[in-house]
């Protein structure tokens, strides 16, 4: 065999393009120096990934940093204006404040004309006004948008994503509730919606109408959930929803369509102000949210969520029965001061099979009342309950009461 034979270069273009798609675009471009055969191959690959295009060595000085950015801008201008460039499957772009809005918008418009299917933009700077064509793109199936939270996202009057299945938004500031509703609702086949670290300015209602939605995720930008949804009403119509994660501030009210197919729900309600007047509102809203999840099978509630529920005045009594719930997980440190709230909740989950405390018990507030542990032995609770698991087990009296006073079919302890 001739050791100098270049057999890989003899492969057809379609196969070489497929190989190059698995490389970062920067590496794929470097293959152009291999031979005349490879010189222009990179210009025809359907995936362009510019998330890590900076060179650490060339940007060690201010002049090198400036030249690196200018070379990249000029290169992207050239490659996106090639007449024989194919339609794009994926386009990833991360920009900082050194890219002006008009240039970035020209790139976005170009990839939309190439019928891009997956678009991932991380833009840090004053990119608050995108080309209107972005929000009416018929080819998009996945859109991920991360911005500088300092700047408000200005939405156009016309929004339509007929093929969009996944929408992930991070560090976005919204301030128009009507246009925001259009953004979340004009996606007829949307299956996953992720809203992370977003702010809602001057918005009284957040409305999501998504009949095909299966996964919905909220994540607050702050640990206490302040300045997020605490001044909004949240309305969600998602009859196909399977999974809900809500790590957010307590909204003023919740209007949830019956989630008849809901399998998993993970709720962590955040609040800073727990004055007497605020407690009433928090308790009411927390109960409204939980009441909309009565069909769930696997439920995770944080210690703070139980604290929020404990503020409700007789609201727990009016909650529906959770007939489908078989697994309950108490996430984060469970405050002993809310043990009666947990006990009341356990009485409306008659088919519960497993109970998990992921971070043990908070010993800071303990009045010595183990009545809840005794009541836990009620026949209605033991009918299906098979295991109690306590992680971060420390062996203090509250934990021992749960173990010793409940005659369960099985118990699992992880230390």
Automatic annotation (TrEMBL):
It comes from Macleaya cordata. CDD domains: F-box_AtFBL13-like. Residues 5-56 form the F-box domain. PROSITE patterns: FBOX. It comes from the Eukaryota. This is F-box domain. InterPro entries: F-box-like_dom_sf (IPR036047), F-box_AtFBL13-like (IPR053781), F-box_dom (IPR001810), FBL13/AtMIF1-like (IPR050232), LRR_dom_sf (IPR032675), LRR_FXL15/At3g58940/PEG3-like (IPR055411). Transmembrane segments: none annotated.
């Amino acid at each position: 065999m001739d050791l100098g034979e270049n057999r890989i270069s003899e492969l057809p273009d379609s196969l070489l393009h497929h190989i190059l798609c698995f490389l970062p675009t920067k590496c794929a471009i470097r293959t152009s120096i291999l031979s005349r055969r490879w010189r222009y191959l990179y210009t025809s690959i359907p995936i362009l990934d510019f998330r890590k295009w900076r060179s650490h060595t060339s940007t060690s000085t201010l002049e090198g940093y400036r030249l690196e950015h200018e070379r990249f801008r000029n290169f992207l201008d050239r490659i996106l204006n090639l007449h024989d460039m194919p339609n794009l499957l994926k386009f990833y772009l991360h920009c900082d404040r050194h890219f002006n809005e008009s240039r970035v918008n020209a790139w976005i418009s170009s990839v939309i004309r190439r019928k891009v299917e997956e678009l991932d933009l991380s833009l840090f700077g004053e990119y608050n006004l995108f080309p209107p064509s972005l929000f009416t793109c018929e080819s998009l199936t996945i859109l991920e948008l991360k911005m500088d939270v300092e700047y408000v996202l200005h939405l156009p009057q016309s929004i339509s994503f007929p093929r969009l299945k996944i929408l992930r938004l991070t560090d976005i500031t919204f301030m128009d509730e009507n246009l925001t509703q259009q953004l979340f609702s004009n996606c007829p086949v949307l299956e996953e919606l992720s809203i992370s670290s977003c702010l809602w300015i001057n918005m009284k209602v957040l409305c999501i109408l998504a009949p095909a939605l299966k996964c919905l995720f909220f994540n607050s930008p702050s640990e206490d959930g302040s300045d997020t949804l605490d001044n909004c009403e949240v309305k969600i119509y998602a009859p196909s929803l399977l999974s809900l994660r809500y790590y957010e501030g307590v909204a003023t009210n919740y209007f949830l369509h019956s989630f008849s197919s809901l399998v998993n729900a993970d709720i962590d309600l955040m609040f800073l102000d727990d004055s007497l007047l605020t407690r009433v509102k928090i308790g009411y809203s927390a109960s409204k949210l939980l009441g909309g999840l009565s069909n769930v099978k696997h439920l995770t509630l944080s210690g703070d969520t139980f604290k929020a529920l404990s503020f409700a005045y007789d609201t727990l009594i009016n909650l529906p029965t959770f007939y489908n719930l078989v697994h309950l997980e108490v996430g984060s440190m469970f405050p002993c001061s809310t043990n009666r709230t947990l006990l009341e909740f356990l009485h409306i989950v008659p088919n519960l099979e497993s109970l998990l405390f992921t971070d043990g018990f908070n010993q800071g507030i303990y009045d010595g009342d183990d009545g809840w542990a005794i009541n836990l032995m009620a026949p209605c609770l033991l009918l299906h309950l098979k295991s109690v698991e306590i992680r971060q087990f420390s062996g203090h009296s509250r934990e021992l009461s749960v173990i010793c006073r409940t005659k369960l079919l099985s118990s699992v302890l992880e230390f």
